[in-house]
Design brief:
The chain is of the alpha/beta class and about 250 residues long. It folds into two domains: about 70 residues, 2-Layer Sandwich (60s Ribosomal Protein L30, Chain: A), CATH 3.30.1330; about 160 residues, Alpha/beta knot (3-Layer(aba) Sandwich). Helix content is about 35%, strand content about 20%. Strands 7-6-5-9-8-10 form a six-stranded parallel β-sheet, sandwiched between helices. A four-stranded mixed β-sheet has the order 1-4-2-3, with helices on both faces. β5, α5 and β6 form a beta-alpha-beta unit. α1 runs parallel beside α2. The chain starts with a strand and ends in a 7-residue tail after the last helix.
């Protein structure tokens, strides 16, 4: 395997790759001793798309995945991340929902955030180039197929990106426990970018300075903070709830 290809695990992720970009799948690998109805369904789908199928023993999956949690995988071309130019293609939309991950480093957190973003119908996820987790195989597996449904955009300078989004009429909403504004007490505009801070330090200073508003999620005093992916799910679906009710702009 080289930098142009990768092995991906997880039935949900494999199904999404089969659905969205089957032409980039190089081969499918299974342990024939571990077949079940879900794996049979994947095999049938792969056969209709003329994807080469190989049978492997347990050691094959252990050597690649490092665990015994997998009995099926695909080898495919690496999913390309988007660059800053991609954002220009989104700016003309009448309604826009963007998730910004401010230097999150845990691939499980990032994968879960991607899953919530895809489920809420977000238009893109943005992450900075340096000191943050990108679109790794672990991220994609944890996303349960969500990574195949939403663009993952890498930007060189997050503060500059926030300024550009705001200049183009996108409201930047940060999340921080120190805010006195509850996430469900404000009314969101039709074009919003929500910022989720890192696992250990939250939003960086420059990120905060480039937010139009900062909101919090009220919690009982015994709990210090929520996991980043939990915050993501709550905030994104509040946006969708409000848009279904056609609220006024944020105040």
């Amino acid at each position: 395997m080289n930098d142009e290809s990768e092995f991906l695990f997880g039935i949900n992720l494999i199904n999404e790759v089969l659905l969205n970009r089957p032409e980039e799948i190089i081969s499918l690998h299974i342990n024939p001793d571990k077949k079940n109805n879900r794996i049979e369904s994947v095999l049938d789908n792969a056969k209709t798309k003329d994807i080469p199928i190989s049978t492997e023993d347990e050691n094959f999956f252990i050597n690649i995945d490092g665990s015994r949690n997998s009995d099926i995988c695909i080898k495919c071309k690496v999913r390309k991340e988007e660059d800053e130019k991609f954002l220009e293609s989104l700016l003309g939309k009448e309604q826009l929902l963007i998730l910004i991950l401010d230097h999150l480093t845990d691939p499980h957190n990032v994968g879960a955030c991607l899953r919530s973003a895809a489920a809420s119908g977000a238009d893109a996820v943005i992450a900075p180039k340096n000191r943050s987790c990108h679109l790794t195989p672990t991220v994609r597996r944890v996303s349960s197929g969500g990574s195949e449904l939403i663009p993952f955009v890498i930007v060189t300078n997050l503060a500059r990106t926030l300024k550009n989004l705001n200049k183009n009429g996108i409201d930047i909403i940060g999340t921080d426990l120190s805010s006195e504004s509850s996430y469900n007490e404000v009314k969101y505009q039709d074009k919003v970018a929500f910022v989720i801070g890192s696992e250990d330090r939250g939003m960086k200073r420059l990120t905060k300075e480039n937010c139009n508003h900062i909101v919090n999620i009220p919690m009982k005093k015994q709990i210090d903070s929520l996991n980043a992916s939990v915050t993501t799910g709550i905030i994104l679906f509040e946006f969708r709830r409000q848009k279904s009710n056609k609220p006024n702009k944020i105040n």
